[in-house]
Model the fold of this input.
Amino acid sequence: MTFAHEPETPRGRLPGGLTLRAMTPNAITVAALCSGLTGIRFAVTAASGTDPLVVAEDWRKAVIAVIIAGILDGLDGRIARLLKAQSRFGAELDSLADNVSFGVAPALILFLWSLQEAPRVGWFAALAVAIACALRLARFNARIDNDVQPHKSAGFLTGIPAPVGAGLAFLPLYLWIATDNPLFRLPVVVGPWLVLIAFLMISNIATLSWTSLRPRRSVRLELMGLVGLVIAALLTEPWLTLVGICVVYILLLPLGVLRYARVKRQRANARPVQLPSE
Done:
């Protein structure tokens, strides 16, 4: 029984006017943030550890935590659109969480893993990734209300996304875990690689997005089988599979540039020609 002085709370709505539907994607974003921060925690533990087996396991956990953050980051936006719970607050929270999980966390993890052997130069390489991620997200927020975005309107992205940049930045760490070769841990290898990834994150090159990938119907079954094989490979040989995914993505970068150049030419040819007035 509801008394007159106790207004009934609508179903699915918390006291104060916040609906559970609006909370769900933001809660996933916070979970992604916590996962990225947990990756930093594992890296700090690994850097101060003495048992080689425990240290190696902590480095694996640090990388996995950031990967989980990337998976959650891919879910929150889709769930928000599915529930029609998009908000400016959610977009700002997502950008702040991405900056920590895919900028600060990879920079600190890789610095503690490798770059602290050359602290002066190595720290600048780590900063390059963190700063590039922040600049990329700031550029995205600045354009979020801009209707004129040539890359986005054609189904492309500008530069590599922050989660992808974090995944690519870990490529030397993947190789080190998979092969146990100390060469991949050298600062002269990790540092230039991070600078390259930082440049790609803030660059203006057109990169492929999910909407720009439209496979033909004749090969869709084969692609579904390929996805299944990749998932199976991730379960059996995760680190070598991550190396392969990184290599494939890097090889696809020129394809994105070429396809967008073709779209630009088609748009230019489709523009009406203005005849001179008499």
The mean pLDDT is 85. The beta strands are 156-158, 206-208.
